[in-house]
């Protein structure tokens, strides 16, 4: 295999296929980017668990609602809701 060929068994989608992911900090900037990237690039990920806490006067439910109403949230809704 030459240096320019990607081994599919070492690709990110192959790594996450059938896996569950526990993500802390998923409501922060990098967490949202990571979730969007995984949902878009890894169609075979089994599930994503978000560890969330209330913050700045918002309950967990309100914070999740804000995430699901972001412009990229159509990916979440299409795949999980």
Please give a structural write-up.
- The structure is a single chain.
- The protein has four helices and two strands.
- It has helices spanning 12-16, 29-41, 60-68, 73-80; strands at residues 20-24, 47-51.
- It has a two-stranded parallel sheet.
- The protein has one domain (11-80).
- The protein has 81 residues and is α+β, with helices and mostly antiparallel strands.
- Strand 1 (20-24), helix 2 (29-41) and strand 2 form a beta-alpha-beta unit.
Beta fraction of the residues?
5-15%
Radius of gyration, Cα only, in angstroms? 15 Å
Order of helices and strands: HEHEHH
Helix content: 40-55%
Instruction: Calculate the terminal CA-CA distance, rounded to whole Å.
Output: 41 Å
Question: What is the overall pLDDT average?
Answer: 82
User: Low-confidence stretches at least 5 residues in length (pLDDT < 50)?
Assistant: none
Main β-sheet, in a few words? 2 strands, parallel
Quick one: overall form?
A: elongated
Count, helices: 4
- Count of individual beta strands: 2
* Secondary structural class: alpha+beta
Count of structural domains = 1
Largest sheet, order of strands side by side? Answer: 1-2
Write the layout of secondary structure elements.
Elements: H1 12-16, E1 20-24, H2 29-41, E2 47-51, H3 60-68, H4 73-80
Parallel strand pairs: 1-2
């Amino acid at each position: 295999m030459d240096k320019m060929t990607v081994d599919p068994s070492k690709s990110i989608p192959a790594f996450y296929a059938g896996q569950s992911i526990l993500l802390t900090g998923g409501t922060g900037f990098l967490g949202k980017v990571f979730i969007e990237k995984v949902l878009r690039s890894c169609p075979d990920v089994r599930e994503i668990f978000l560890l969330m806490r209330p913050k700045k006067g918002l309950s967990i439910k309100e914070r999740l609602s804000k995430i699901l109403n972001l412009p990229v949230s159509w990916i979440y809704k299409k795949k999980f809701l």
